[in-house]
Design a protein that fits this description.
Elements (H helix, E strand, L loop, with lengths): L19 E7 L4 E2 L4 E4 L3 E3 L6 E2 L3 E8 L2 E5 L1 E3 L6 E9 L6 E7 L3 E7 L9 E7 L11 E5 L4 E5 L8 E8 L2 E2 L16
Parallel strand pairs: 1-9
Antiparallel strand pairs: 1-3, 2-5, 4-8, 6-7, 6-9, 10-11, 11-14, 12-13, 12-15, 15-16
Length: about 190
């Protein structure tokens, strides 16, 4: 910065620096894609929400990367360098299962779970025996199915009495409400 007096014709060139950068998105296990964003240095950009990409059983918590360590919905690039942000997903609780399927045995029933659609994947299912009116037995009779298995046996049922069954699904995000009751089955004693 000084003053200059020009005594002849001169050519001058302006030199510009870009204040733009690109933000790329890693959808981190999701399906689909998120188009890159153009960011202006030191101006917040709203980051993409689920729409052109998703991850079944999960909700988008936000994005990390480029110095951001807590999932965020906006990003301000303080440089003109391009950056890749990584999607962070939160597991959803399982959907309510469909009514289970039961097959009567002698003093028992073999029950198969029917997962619901949507929600996060279940780690386990608890199947509870109900009376013919759909009320839980007292004392409770139940069994637990751990994924990927799909069925279990509840024994100690009385022969010639009708039972129904209901299921809940559980993962680390929570437990679903109970399914509807199965069709009634009646254990039969050995002939």
């Amino acid at each position: 910065g000084g003053n200059y007096v020009l005594s002849a014709n001169v050519n001058a060139e302006a030199q510009w620096e870009s204040t733009l950068s690109q933000i790329f998105y890693d959808i981190n296990g999701g399906t689909g894609s998120a188009a890159p964003s153009v960011a202006t240095q030191n101006q917040a950009v709203t980051l993409p929400l689920v729409g052109t990409f998703s991850r079944p059983g999960y909700a988008l918590a936000g994005w990390i990367g480029g110095g951001v360590t807590t999932p965020a919905a906006t990003y301000t690039n303080t440089t003109t360098n391009s950056v890749t942000l990584i999607a962070q997903w939160t597991l959803l609780a399982p959907a309510v299962p469909l009514a289970p399927t039961a097959v009567a045995g002698s003093g028992s029933a073999n029950i198969t779970v029917n997962p619901g659609s949507g929600g996060g994947p279940a780690d386990s299912y608890v199947i509870t025996a109900l009376d013919s009116s759909g009320n839980p037995l007292d004392p409770t009779k139940s069994c637990t199915v751990y994924a990927p298995s799909t069925s279990c046996v509840i024994s100690g049922l009385e022969d010639r009495i009708s039972y129904k069954f209901a299921t809940t699904a559980t993962n680390s995000a929570g437990t679903s409400t109970s399914s509807g009751a199965s069709t009634a089955v009646t254990p039969a004693g050995k002939p």
